[in-house]
Amino acid sequence: xxxxxxxxxxxxxxxxxxxxxxxxxxxxxxxxxxxxxxxxxxxxxxxxxxxxxxxxxxxxxxxxxxxxxxxxxxxxxxxxxxxxxxxxxxxxxxxxxxxxxxxxxxxxxxxxxxxxxxxxxxxxxxxxxxxxxxxxxxxxxxxxxxxxxxxxxxxxxxxxxxxxxxxxxxxxxxxxxxxxxxxxxxxxxxxxxxxxxxxxxxxxxxxxxxxxxxxxxxxxxxxxxxxxxxxxxxxxxxxxxxxxxxxxxxxxxxxxxxxxxxxxxxxxxxxxxxxxxxxxxxxxxxxxxxxxxxxxxxxxxxxxxxxxxxxxxxxxxxxxxxxxxxxxxxxxxxxxxxxxxxxxxxxxxxxxxxxxxxxxxxx
Length: 363
What we know:
Blueprint: H1 3-10, H2 14-23, H3 29-59, H4 62-76, E1 84-88, H5 89-94, E2 106-111, E3 114-119, E4 122-124, E5 131-133, H6 139-156, E6 160-162, H7 166-173, H8 185-198, E7 200-206, E8 212-217, E9 220-222, E10 226-229, E11 232-235, E12 238-241, H9 243-251, E13 253-257, H10 258-263, H11 268-282, E14 288-291, H12 292-299, H13 306-323, E15 329-332, E16 335-338
Antiparallel strand pairs: 1-13, 2-3, 3-7, 4-5, 6-12, 7-8, 9-12, 10-11, 14-16, 15-16
């Protein structure tokens, strides 16, 4: 086989073969063969690279694959209003319990000038009519429920929001199948809704200069979580926030990219890290240093060992950087150094700056 024939034999794709046959017998046939061979080899290389990437992803765990997929979407589609959810900033900073607190009826978390206190309450059983004690809300599902309900309140600009169709859709958007039964996802979300509906909440705000306020409210004024339908228990049509909580939410709403929340929907601590980092970076003007003791108080309340917390936190941060690789967050023996981020690298849009006051003077 001659050199030209060997090159022709390498050209396999149907469209390239068609161009080859159309050029056969022409004066520039040999240069055309060279060009078609170059295109064939380029395609082969791209296919080989894609195959290697597919095999690499197959070797990753499910969560890592999800994070990488979310990163690609966010990099190719910048955050837009339709991608944004909202959460009360104090909830983003202070968080809920990570695990089931069991019989514990009170939970307190503080961060800097802000604090959150939860008291477990009771709900009336729709079957027995008895007032039954509910536990404290906890885990990723409680955070996702609050994220969704706060979002709807901000979007609808009303403390009473329509949720009949949105909750099931939100569960699917977060990667959960909507299933009933004893072990179904609906039951798990229902439990957290019940706990949130029953609890009382205190939100403490302090300006660091002698002014402080404490908001004492249950998050919801009315929350008839379930009503009976033809197919059994279904979502209630409306949820009403307490007016004071709603007013505070509107003033202190933190945007959250729903695509990133989906990437961490199975981990309460990763969600807290996502919320916290988004809040801090929005207005960060200079590097922020946090010691391991600071981080442990913020994210390790249920991990008594600082050593084991450090390992877990490193893994959580690595997960966040899988989705937002351009963030400049360094860990060392002293703790964490958080650097200001460029607007295009932020988790959520930058916080709007207050307009400078016009200089006054005498004319």
